[in-house]
């Protein structure tokens, strides 16, 4: 198969909704060729229908290494290049660690962390061929500082942050910029997930805490800025920015606040 040489290309996991969909719309509007991967075939079709030139869609689970390899080869062409991989697919998780089952722990780690690692590893040769490429990972404000009820989710997102920092150093000589988004609570369907050990949804807990929801369009703009900017980590939304400030300048106060929250 010949290498595909067209407009600059981006492959987006979790492209069937939320941040992935908004990012696809923004990059498509700015002339990029779009590839979308997701487990949700209907969501993929809905996103592609919103794009002026459509998109190449791939029904794929990020836990499937063979699926990763097929998707990258099909989208980039054998021996081809990829300008940007947006490692965005993820699932929410919340609730006390002691009440979280082993299967749920394995699922969240496999999708949120191992899937990101595999995507980066398998996309590397395609990114390296582009000479001026970007690997963008979706981490989270939960990866800035751990909070009660976020043990597994926060651990995976802290891992994504660490991976980003590591690959930024490892891959700089290959002309690959590695970046991470660190959003707070984003207005997506994931907010409707129920917390472990509770009947409450993530949305209800965030609302009760008086925290804000950041529109997906703002995250998409941050993805564009991250892809073209020099900063390594990109907090998105008021909560993420406040947490970044507190973790750096007020760690003792932040720790005390988290301990109080965990005792409620």
UniProtKB/TrEMBL annotation:
<keyword id="KW-0560">Oxidoreductase</keyword>
<comment type="similarity">
    <text>Belongs to the short-chain dehydrogenases/reductases (SDR) family.</text>
</comment>
<dbReference type="InterPro" id="IPR036291">
    <property type="entry name" value="NAD(P)-bd_dom_sf"/>
</dbReference>
<feature type="domain" description="Ketoreductase">
    <location>
        <begin position="8"/>
        <end position="179"/>
    </location>
</feature>
<dbReference type="InterPro" id="IPR057326">
    <property type="entry name" value="KR_dom"/>
</dbReference>
<dbReference type="Pfam" id="PF00106">
    <property type="entry name" value="adh_short"/>
</dbReference>
<dbReference type="InterPro" id="IPR002347">
    <property type="entry name" value="SDR_fam"/>
</dbReference>
<protein>
    <submittedName>
        <fullName>SDR family oxidoreductase</fullName>
    </submittedName>
</protein>
